[in-house]
Write a structure and sequence with these properties.
globular
């Protein structure tokens, strides 16, 4: 499979976003304007609605979820003392923790994805997200594509069932919502000919329901900087900035992300880095900027989770002396993050007992904008929620973990966190509604075995105090 085909296939996994401005929505599209289903009588005629005026698409910005759950965290130093008093673990030099010393409550509940959006609601939300991300641009309808959940994508540069809105508006209006599962915007993908002359590359993909499914975008600022360094045209956008899960930046000469030097930082670091726009920014300020930007993205339903940055890497771009920032992020419910996998980790966690394991990543290449993000979704539904006021002390959870792990290993502990674990997966009902998970709060301790360089993610239920499981990984230890 060649590089371009791999790239384009991966593009179809990203999500198109439309923007917002302050004020009430004045979108010309509403569910009342839309033909919501196709008459099964073949002799009938369904009239498509008039195409909207892109320039009139507006929406209020999103905002952080509203909740009251005061949380006080142990400092890393306090956690080091607790670990030393209750285990024989060696604490890693880069150890970090997010463990509450006090919290109002945790919750036990079910989590699932809402039903798909109605077709025109999906389309409207897409345009609103685009307007938020690219406020000075009007999307070219010939670069705006849609396809279904089960579209057949096969063959080199052959994409069955992927259609443009511009050339297929009437057909699009007659589609059933079940048949339009993704929308994406890509001048590069336009007619398979690469970026039209004079067009800056952009990418945005949304999955229905908006805010709950896949949301991915790339503004191309890092790509343009790399292209300039390598004296290439921006048509090389997808070759120099490949969209694989975490948007790995590729060195065009080696084709490897590893060719770029990366430095790990804590999220509250006050150290500064020089970005590709020639300006400096403190790591902690960049973290706040990224979180605020992502959590202000528009979404049609109330957001019940907020995105938090968990890890930061500053990456020197192709030996230029300039840096981009890579953020590993996860959604958090009422201040407690869901279990996650940071970029660069090879984990077996996703296959462990049908547990949900979230991966989301973002990039900043300049000091005043977010360049790209993958896996952003803030809308979920929770049911049968039970709030619990008291949790097992972290000291008890550490002792439980230490008793279960081998006494013959000189364990290093890399991190300690309280996370929500979504497990006991239930199949989607109906098929277009997301899988349902049972959600419970757990202490997550990441241990490292220096003998074989394997990491162990261990979980202790924060309500019952019972040891839950462990799974193996590589890449958590900061080198």
């Amino acid at each position: 499979m060649n590089t371009r085909y791999r790239m384009l296939c991966l593009c179809l996994l990203c999500a198109l976003l439309c923007g917002c401005t302050e004020g009430e929505s004045s979108s010309p599209l509403s569910s009342a304007d839309v033909v919501s289903s196709v008459d099964t009588d073949e002799s009938s005629t369904v009239q498509p609605i008039e195409k909207p005026d892109f320039s009139q698409i507006k929406m209020n910005k999103g905002k952080y979820s509203s909740y009251e759950n005061p949380v006080t965290l142990y400092s890393d130093g306090e956690m080091r003392d607790i670990i030393a008093a209750n285990t024989d673990f060696t604490v890693d030099a880069h150890f970090f923790s997010k463990v509450p010393s006090a919290i109002d409550h945790v919750s036990v509940m079910h989590k699932y994805i809402p039903e798909q959006d109605e077709l025109m609601d999906f389309y409207r939300s897409y345009l609103e997200t685009f307007a938020y991300l690219f406020p000075d641009e009007v999307p070219d309808e010939n670069c705006l594509f849609y396809y279904g959940k089960n579209s057949n994508i096969s063959g080199d540069n052959t994409y069955d069932d992927v259609k443009t809105i511009g050339a297929n508006w009437e057909d699009f209006c007659r589609e059933k919502k079940e048949d339009v599962y993704y929308m994406f915007y890509s001048p590069y993908f336009h007619e398979g000919q690469g970026t039209p002359p004079g067009t800056e590359n952009r990418f945005l993909e949304l999955q229905s329901p908006v805010g709950a499914g896949l949301t991915t975008f790339n503004k191309g600022k890092l790509a343009a900087f790399v292209s300039e360094l390598n004296h290439e045209t921006d048509d090389r956008f997808l070759e120099t900035y490949i969209m694989v899960n975490a948007f790995s930046p590729f060195d065009s000469t080696t084709g490897s992300f590893d060719a770029w030097d990366a430095q790990y930082y804590s999220v509250d670091s006050e150290e500064t880095v020089l970005m590709t726009d020639g300006k400096e920014i403190a790591i902690c300020d960049a973290v706040r900027f990224y979180e605020d930007y992502i959590n202000a993205m528009p979404h049609p339903a109330d957001a019940l989770v907020d995105f938090q940055v968990i890890r930061v890497h500053a990456i020197e771009v192709a030996d230029s002396g300039r840096y981009c920032l890579q953020f590993s992020t996860t959604p958090a419910f009422e201040g407690i993050p869901f279990d996650y996998e940071p970029y660069g980790v090879n984990s077996n966690n996703s296959g462990a007992g049908s547990y949900e394991f979230l991966i989301s990543t973002g990039y900043m290449a300049v000091t005043d904008d977010v360049d790209a993000a993958y896996g952003v979704g803030r809308v979920a539904e929770f049911s049968q929620r039970q709030d619990i006021k008291e949790i097992v002390p972290v000291a008890d959870a550490l002792r439980c973990c230490a008793e279960k792990m081998s006494q013959y290993v000189e364990w290093e502990i890399l991190s300690a966190e309280l996370v929500y674990c979504a497990g006991n997966k239930k199949a989607a009902e109906p098929p277009l509604q997301g899988d349902r998970y049972d959600v419970r709060p757990c202490y997550r301790f990441v241990l490292h075995n220096p003998a074989d360089e394997i990491d162990y993610l261990t979980y202790v239920d924060a309500v019952s105090g019972e040891y839950v499981r462990y799974t193996t990984a590589q890449g958590y230890k900061v080198q």
